[in-house]
Amino acid sequence: MKTVLVPGLLLLLLSACQILYPPGVYNDLNRGSPGGGLPGSGQNPGSIQGSDWTPATAAAAFSPRYGMAVLTNNGNMWVIGGFDGVNYLSDVWLSPDGINWSEASASASFSGRRYHSSILFHGFIWIICGWNASTYLGDIWSSPNGTNGWIQASPIGTPPTPRYCQAAAAFNNSLWVLGGDNGSGALNDVYYSPDGSTWAQVNTGTYFTARYGHTCVVFNGSLWVIGGCGAALYNDIWYSATGTNWTEAVANAPFPARYMHTSVVYDNKIWVMGGKSGASRLNDIWSSPDGTNWTQATPSSLFSKRDSLSSIEFNNEMWILAGWDGTSIFNDVFFSQ
Asked: By C-alpha distance, which of 285, 299, 308 is closest to 26?
């Protein structure tokens, strides 16, 4: 059974793209489970890698949400914050298997938010920027265990300005924040910090165009930026070995231009999944062994079409978590080998 409560609609117009955010509480309870099985059960013989997805759970213990952050730490998968249709969340959840979830903190010290970044760096979990219904956030928090001990950084130098829908990564022994939207438009600025406290802005070099809702991964010794939305929807791909000088690997990848998608590095490939392209939401899967040549694993995966989903590599598998399809907000979890 699927329960859908929609007390109202909120329309946000951002740059050249539109996103619809309806307040409401949703629970996706009818995800099918053909094939079933526990994580580690393997891929169907003869199938294309990334085409087979197995539901780990149709309704995780954390509430349905989107715009959350995920990471791995100490043998667990972590889910942090997001938006449930009514509330901007600051809860923290963890799972050793993607099926059984425990609440590490119902309300962490940082304010509830969505479209923030969360990175594991120097043994700490970091929370960076985001949005909480009325404010573009520029605060930076860290915790040694994700449960308690959250400390707000007092950054010096030139830290990232308040924003959301940015991309972030740990790369070359530094934290990196790239692009996003600050309410006045899309950005293409780049910041880095060796410790989360002392920040600098990259002021020289060639940049990708301003965008938000893009993804960033670390792959083959470089930072990679994929897609996003700014003056247009993008399916271009950029990389940099330094974070300063950027090279366009592909001007128009074979997958549809998109934003609010998710990307992950798995089995020595970059993977791009889901997102929003114009008025259409997607559940296609693409991969590349080099960032330039792309192959479609499936045009329509088992998980429903959605944007603002999250992905992660965990226990030698790819995982997809939550998101929304314009009507329903999900808390389902899928994995693939």
From this structure: 308
pLDDT in tens, 113-149: 999 999 999 999 999 999 999 999 999 999 999 988 8
Region 229-243: mean pLDDT is 97
- Length of the chain in terms of residues written: 337
SS3 of 249-310: the string is: EECCCCCCCCECCEEEEECCEEEEEEEEECCEEEEEEEEECCCCCCEEEECCCCCCCEECCE
Q: Which two tokens stand for residue 316?
A: 């030698």
Containing 243, the helix (H) or strand (E) segment is none
* Alpha-carbon span 263 to 217, nearest angstrom: 7
Which residues is 282 bridged to in the sheet? 275, 306
Mean pLDDT for 10-24 is 36
Cα 104 to Cα 318: distance, rounded to the nearest angstrom: 23
Q: Which residues pair with 119 in a beta bridge?
A: 126
pLDDT in tens, 134-143: 999 999 999 9
Cβ atoms 287, 297 nearer than 8 A:
yes
pTM for the whole thing? 0.88
| Mean pLDDT for all residues in the chain | 88
Strand, coil or helix: 2: coil
**What pLDDT, on the 0 to 100 scale, is given for residue 1?**
30
CATH of range 3-336; options 3.60.21.10, 1.20.120.80, 3.20.20.190, 2.120.10.80? 2.120.10.80
**Domain limits, the chain:** 3-336
Using an 8 Å Cβ cutoff, are 302 and 34 in contact?
A: yes
- Of 313, 329, 331, which Cα lies nearest the Cα of 321? 331
User: Using 50, 70 and 90 to split pLDDT, how confident is the model at 18?
Assistant: very low
